Amino acid sequence: MALSKEDFNKLAVLSRLKFSDEEAEKFRNEMDDIIAFADTINNAVSGGTDDIKSTGTDAVLYTELREDAVKESLPNEKILSNVDGSKGFFNVRRCVK
Amino acid sequence: MNYELVCGIETHIELATKTKIFCGCTTEFGGAPNTHCCPVCTGQPGSLPVLNRKVVEYAVRAGLAVNCTINNNSHMDRKNYVYPDLPKAYQISQFDEPVCENGYIELDSGKRIGITRIHIEEDAGKLVHESGTTYIDYNRGGVPLIEIVSEPDISSPEEAREYAEKLQLIMRYVGISDCKMQEGSMRCDVNLSLRPAGSTEFGTRTETKNINSLSNIVKAINREIERQEDILESGGRVVQATMRYDANTDDIYPMRTKENSDDYRYFPDPDILRFYIEPEFVERTKSELPELPSAKLRRYIDDMQLPETTARDIYKYRRVSEFLDSAVTEGASVKNAANMIIGGIYKTLETEEDKEKFDIKITPVQLAELVKLIDEKKINKNKGQEALSKMLESGKAVSEFIKAEDTEGLSEDELIRICRAAVDENPDAVNNIRAGKGKAINVIFGYVMRQTRGKADMGKVNKIISDIIG
Ligand SMILES: [Zn+2]
Q: What is d(CA B331, CA B342) in angstroms, rounded to the nearest whole number?
């Protein structure tokens, strides 16, 4: 299924992304390919051969979920090591919803 | 024109787990910014969220407590929106397979407010806006929440308040959250529209976000009704919007209109396995639920014959009701125990929060010891209250403050014991009585009077003595 221009533009707005006309055209085509690829996988899963077929029992049991036990967090410097931070906070340009 | 209110409430409740929903970081309140964080809860590429079992357990408990059915098969979805309180640009939540569905809460009137669903999700981080910068703290990011969505069954501000209050109490009883609205561990969003009375169509609704107290729910709804009525009366139309209520100014205003923002493009989170909640686990959880508030209130009023106001003053604080129940198990009469709590203990606990915490120095056993003295009429209520305030100050037992000689009345057992002693200690007098010398009984009376400091009823003593002597 091809991605329409409207859908592409709407996605861009929702994702806070801005594209030039050429960029938009380029990425829209690339997304078409990505979606086509996902469609292929979908078909394989629902129709497909035994080795990639979903078993339908791929859920974990409640008892296999993670235990509620505290682990040490990362030190603040480490958490902020790749970001623009100050006073222990992540900093971004002011944004108010 | 007359309008009728159509209102539903979405309630977010922070679960009292030790760790976050998808990582082992602590959920402890406070802490220096971004010190309860790790690669998972700050959304670092390549990190892998793993669902906390306790979150599912608490959600199941919450659902069962409000009469929901539990979906055995459930999974997490991504809710996409771009805002820096979410480091991943999506919130991990649930869309089409929430843990719980189709419940209700019954109001005092008997009317049921439907609960559409309860799902689990992660909380967002906290933003502080200062001049040109937004500062972000992700300590709360990833803290587990349940969102409880009601049906639009609420038709007055008072019903809204009662619904929220009952929901809060139920969740406190089942022990999944402290539900403190002021501190944000319980937050209500109110969806509200008006329609001409008798109409069956819905009007355009607005959503008022993050109301932080029960009384503000009533105020915000009243204010929004007024606003929408004004618009409709002047021939305008209500615009779908997210509103904010300012309790200080009693003002309500739109934060943003909802043109595009509802398009969250939910899809199953591929990082998190689907999970299966065994029916046996659901059954066990159901059988382990504590007595719920409505049942407790009925028991206090119907079985224990407490006046309704007294019963309500006690049942609305989980810890207090548990304290009363234990004291009664220890032999205290429910009426006197409840009166000591309300007339005495509550005097030392000024705020609602103090009563909710119920951090007092005495134990239910100690209260029971005191109440039994009142029940047996050994001391009167005033003396009881006096002793209680000393006990509350010191944490000491009632025997520290009330000596045997302070007891005003005498128990039957005590009187019999003293009469027996009088007989044993005065064999000559007993012989004289048996020999028909009637006046000899005065020796026995004198003994009993001394021992009881004049409190004994001589008629009773006469009967007991003749029973003993035969
Ligand atoms: Zn973490």
A: 18
Domain A5-45: give its CATH superfamily: Glu-tRNAGln amidotransferase C subunit, N-terminal domain (1.10.20.60)
Rounded to two decimals, the ipTM of the complex is 0.83
Q: Please, are residues B276 and B75 in contact by the beta-carbon 8 Å criterion? A: no
Is the CB of residue B232 less than 8 Å from the CB of residue B238?
yes
Radius of gyration of chain B, Cα coordinates, nearest whole angstrom? 31
DSSP structure class, residue B268: E
- Tell me the chain A residues in contact with residue B129 when contact means C-beta distances shorter than 8 Å: 94-96
Q: Are residues B54 and B144 in the same domain?
A: yes
Give the model confidence (pLDDT) of B140-169 as tens digits: 999 999 999 999 999 999 999 999 999 999
Which of B19, B128, B276 has the CB atom closest to A68's CB atom? B19
The residues, any chain, with a CB within 8 Å of residue B320's CB and separated by 6 or more, are B314, B341, B355, B358
From ligand 1's centre to the CA of B50, what distance in Å?
A: 11
- Give CB contacts under 8 A, 24+ apart, made by B28-32: B29/B183, B30/B139, B31/B139, B32/A76, B32/A88
- Asked if A65 and B50 come within 8 Å (Cβ–Cβ), the reply is yes
CB B385 within 8 A of CB B344: yes
Reported as a single tens digit per residue, the pLDDT across B40-67 is 999 999 999 999 999 999 999 999 999 9
R_g (Cα) of chain A, nearest Å:
22
- What CA–CA distance (Å, rounded) separates B50 from B269? 12
Give yes or no for a contact between B92 and B76, defined as CB atoms under 8 angstroms apart: yes
- What ranges in B256-377 are assigned the alpha helix state H? 279-287, 293-298, 308-315, 318-329, 334-343, 352-357, 364-375
CATH label of the domain that carries residue B451:
1.10.10.410
Tell me if chain A has a CB within 8 Å of the CB of B73: yes
